[in-house]
Write the structure tokens for this entry.
Amino acid sequence: MRTDSTKYTNFTGWIDPPDDVQPALDGDLTCDIAVIGGGTGGMAAALRLAERDQDVVLLEAEFCGYGSASRNGGQIAGAPGGDLRMLSLQSPKKVPIMARLAEHAGRYVEDLIKTHDIDCDYVANGLVWGAVSPFMMFRVRTQAAILRAFGGHGTVGSREELGLPAGFVGGMRESIGGMLNPGKLARGVRRALLGSSARVFEQTRVSDVRRAGGIVEITTPHGTVRAQKVLLATSVYGGEWDITPKNLATPLYVIEIESEPIAPERLAALDWTNRSGIITQHQVMTHYRLTERNTIVCGVRQAQRGQTYPLPDRVPDPRVVRDMGKDLANRFPSLSDVAIERAWGGWIGISPDWLAVAGQVGDNVFYAMACNGHGLCQVPYVTHQLADYIVDGEMPEDLAGIWSDASKYSRSMSLLMQPFVLRAVWGLDRFNDFFNGSRTLARRALRRGRRGGY
């Protein structure tokens, strides 16, 4: 696919920035609970605390919904992310916990949309673990069996049974979830938050968080917040402060690309009848989805490691975008002449063992790190539960299953995701694509479609 006129941005392509960005903190203040971070996790927590009549302040460096909250693929998932085969070997006791949490998280976001009447183009058509080759279909069946064994739900089927595009062999559709516009979702949650009693300060970058005399002092360029309790909902950015548990998040830069609008008859020729979003079973997954504006969004495929803090503000690497465009052309050969209209990217944090985790440091600093490939649902669900725990002192069952009091985590994830390892994994995925015939399958499907009169 053509990338000569692609627009690159560090914000999302799903929605424009808001025109009512809130003023920065100017002066000192006190509160009962401060939430740092205005992604879906931070907003969900602050909104819940406000609903519980708490004196809550939220601080966000840019504006709420600026980061990964609105930059992702818009996939509402009802199953854990990651390789369930590895997870079942490494953490067999946590997999059933995560299977239950993932389903509850999907339902939570669906309820959030309904409760606050958020128009985000949500379609509950499931999310498919797609196979582009017979070998990958074997992996799908294996992972589906593990999911069912641990209490999860999903339907395995052929391409025709699941309504997948020509070129896919089959897959497993999750029983909960679907597709939405994540920019609109984040904007809707932001609207609800601004309409609540929470005090929201955007354009307010936190430079330090530390305890002082039984309270927590939060330092910003133009004022200090003194809070009785603090919830860190900063994803990868909490690594800038000493108070954050070490190795809580490994920083990765990921990219989404979107095609130009495609004629409806050309999309119909793909035979993507269910319009479900698809995530492949590569080592570094690639996802594909149709949008309400008749474009295709594709994400990840290559992840790039962040090495030092502060993480640089950057736009997508054109080399990676060209590679992603090449992949789209291989996966959908009939659309190889279509242009990539925009590309956006940003930093995400991967949790210590690829599973959601929440905990606290001392008696008044709480944190959550729930990005494991399906963070759009799990992040706000976990912080919502964390908000209830802060108020009630009674831990919900799902939160208890991922709870930790650690002040430091293993460096294993950080060591695993070194740049040379990520590059090698990308090479392994491409090697497998070449020998498993996925490109040939896609082109064969194109020829069949032409003979059928598409």
